[in-house]
Structures are given as C-alpha cells and as structure tokens.
Specification:
Layout (H helix, E strand, L loop, with lengths): L9 H15 L9 H5 L6 E2 L2 E2 L10 E3 L4 E3 L1 H11 L10 H13 L9 E3 L1
Parallel strand pairs: 3-5
Antiparallel strand pairs: 1-2, 3-4
Helix pairs in contact: 1-4
C-alpha cells in the first residue's frame, strides 16, 4: 500500500502545519533545520552516511550503525542531537507533528518496512 495522509480533518491540518514549521525551522548551535540536510544536501554524504530525502516509509528500520532496529522518533532525536539543538521529549507534540508532516511528504511511496539503512 502506498503512503497516504488525509488532511481533510481540520485538527489534523493544524498538526501538519506544526510539523512543517518544525521541519523548516533552523535551530540549535548549528542553525540547521531538517530541510538543511534532507533537501539541500540530499544525496550527498555527511560523515559516512548518505543523506536521504528524509522519507519515513521504511521505519522502523534496521540501522547497521546501531546494529538494531531504530524507531522514527529515535532517528528524529538523532538528527536533532547532531545539530546540537535542545532535545524534545520522546513522543512530544513537536515530534508527533513532525512525524505527520514527513509522512505526508512520502505520499505515494510504498511502505517498505522494516528497511535496512547504513
């Protein structure tokens, strides 16, 4: 089944708006947003990792780096940590809204979980 998000519910639209804001807001000591890497540097390498488009259709995913299954929120928190930003609480409203937004960005992609990533 392809990824599909129905935003016709007014409440869900407000969460999408919050998630989009979180995705594009520069934060932390490095002043990066999710888009700083996953849009402008997509396909390039950061350290030894290949930067993805930030799609989540493969989560949870097995990551060789951790030698374990990794949740989406764990990966979000890893990106936030890497920008030296203040860490939101696990399953905070910010991360839940971000999850909705990046899920929507993958509209039409097939669900491929669990995936394997470097």
């Amino acid at each position: 089944m392809p990824v599909s998000v129905d935003l016709s519910n007014g409440e869900l639209q407000s969460w999408w708006d919050k998630g989009k804001k979180a995705y594009y807001t520069r934060t932390g000591q490095l002043k990066f947003s999710c888009a700083s890497c996953h849009e402008t540097a997509m396909g390039k390498h950061i350290r030894a990792d290949h930067l993805s488009q930030g799609q989540i259709n493969g989560f949870p995913t097995y990551r060789f780096q951790q030698a374990a299954m990794v949740s989406l929120h764990s990966r979000f928190r890893g990106g936030i940590r890497d920008t030296r930003a203040e860490m939101p609480a696990a399953f905070s409203d910010q991360l839940m809204a971000l999850e909705l937004y990046v899920t929507w960005r993958g509209t039409g992609l097939s669900v491929e979980t669990p995936a394997v990533r470097h």
